[in-house]
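Hi L.,

You mentioned the student needs an example of a multi-chain input paired with its predicted structure. This one should do, with 694 residues in total across all chains.
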Amino acid sequence: MDSNFEKAKVVVVGDSGVGKTSLIHLIAHQEILKNPSWTIGCTVDVKLHEYKDGTSHHKTCFLEFFDIGGNIGHRSSAKIFHQGADGIILVHDLTNRKSQDNLNQWIADIMEQNEKLSIGISDYQYETKLSPGKKSSTKKANSYIDYHDNSNLLPLFFIGTKLDQAQMVRNSSFLKAQSQIASFYRSDEINLDCMQTKYLAPATSNSIKLAKFFDRVLENKFSK
Amino acid sequence: MSFFSDSCLVFLSEFIFFIGGWIFFMKELFKNYEVQYKTVIFSFSITFSLSCIMFELIIFEILGFLDPSSRLFHWKLGLYSILFLLVFYLPFQISYLIVRNFEFIRSKRVALIVSCVLWLAILILFWKIGDPFPILSPKHGILSIEQCVSRVGVIGVTVMAFLSGFGAVNCPYTYMSYFVKIALNERNSMYNTAEQSGFWSRFKTAIKSSSQNSEVKREIIGLEEMARQLFLELVDLNRTLDRISFSKTLQGKYFNFVGHFFSIYCIWKIFISSINIIFDRVGKVDPVTRSIEIVVGYLGLKFDVQFWSQNISFLVVGIIVVTSIRGFLITLTKFFYAISSSHSSNIIVLCLAQIMGMYFVSSVLLMRMNVPAQYRVIITQVLGDLQFNFYHRWFDVIFLVSALSSIGFLYLAHQQKQIAEKHNNLFTMLDLYQDHKKSNGKNSKQHEAAILYPAFVRAHLEFASAVWNS
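Structure written out for the whole complex:
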């Protein structure tokens, strides 16, 4: 299927109920999703992104967001959507610390499907499922790391949701500091509330970080 | 043994169960959630430890361990505490958390008042439950402990019988590879027939008709719905694949073997319950004494009845206790994962703690039937003079109803799956998708839908062939 625009696939993962569907709706359509319902399988949203806006290499590209339902029972079947990913957005809930810890398992699942790629420098150990009927075993993330070859890098981006609810419960210093997992994977992150458009308004630092991430995704895609 | 040392022992074991309940909560139930209210874990662990203590006291009763008077004291203490928890404390906590979840109630004082009102309503409901049942003899006063125990017993017995009935039908269905093979054969025959039903001709006309925006939008919505159905089928296929490969391992073969015996036991149980109800039979002698009588009477073996009766009842009661606790906790975990979300996790876990308490209290009640007469005395003494026969009859009724409705439900679900699969013929869909691709031009929304299908169709085909080949 030929098209005038280049495209890249961004996979959006996270635990069930963290707000991935509302988030993607906000990013792609700049409006708030009124009645989000449970995502079964995968929903796709599309955004036109101005790659390297203002430079000579300027291109308009498609970004396909694959919003994958985080239901625990569907997790092994959802692996079919992870293939061919060009970038990963990891969403966690700021009111629930466990959703952040579970992101390591999501990263492991995705890397299992994209074995030729690496995700940057990390020392974190995670578990991966080897075969049905067998208990999971640990596998070092180092096996996916290639320190020298940057051509097959898969960019990661972390987004923390439900900022307004978290601000009522936690102290602000915790929320302003970089989260543990983002520093582990040396990736960018933003914290926001999907129910207010002000967090991703143009020219805010959040939208600039997001645009830089999209540029990196497309850059990696074109350099392959 | 003095009263003091006995009490130390009992409290130590209570503490151990408390820690066990805490660990279970943190590692299994709340694996994906952060604990916001420490009181929730506390209530859950306390309920769990008090229930386990009651079982432990029965076992001590049979073994003759500890002083009888201290045993009686701890029985009463444990029973009163668990009743206090189940009737007063847990409902209050549940109503408070429900009220806190409402967004329009901001101040704590208002929340407290509203939750008190809700709590009183729950208490009144609880009281009213006891009215239609003939569970008390008239000589008991209004505020006696028997009132509470009887009502808790009714609710607990209902839950127990419902779960047993469903389990008695579901276990054989799950573990028998026989059923899996039938499902496999049906699936194979499904993919071999190429049928076109009315649904597909409508689909074709919808694609060819127009390129206007609203029509396309409707088409997208229809396609997305189909994508969801396909995905759910994929999940199902994956599970079947897992089940098949599991049944090939050693553990799977063992479960298969045990499953045969277990299904025979379940069928016998259903049969016996119906006999009990039809003939209005009330068992007087427990299975242990009856089997010993048979052994002594018919086989003429002479052995120390007292000694063997004690040991066998200990074994039987021990097995019942361990399997019911384990089975209940596993069911609890599965149920919790299925229905919880980040908002409601606290409330659901407290409701489950309440059900657990009631379930275990009524297990003690019903266990009276399974132990010889000399051990029944303590249960009768502690729980008061309830109409135990009523509870057994009620259990049989609910068990039968639950088993029959589960059979009906599983059969209906099976039929539905067969009908649905006839419509979702993979090969027809693949052809239609390729026609669609060739005939349409560029449009970003259609682009969206077209992305989904290769992944689904390809994966569906892969798994179907895996199922064929295994």
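You could point out the following to them. Chain A has one domain: 6-222. Chain A touches chain B through 34 residues (CB under 8 Å).

Best wishes,
N.
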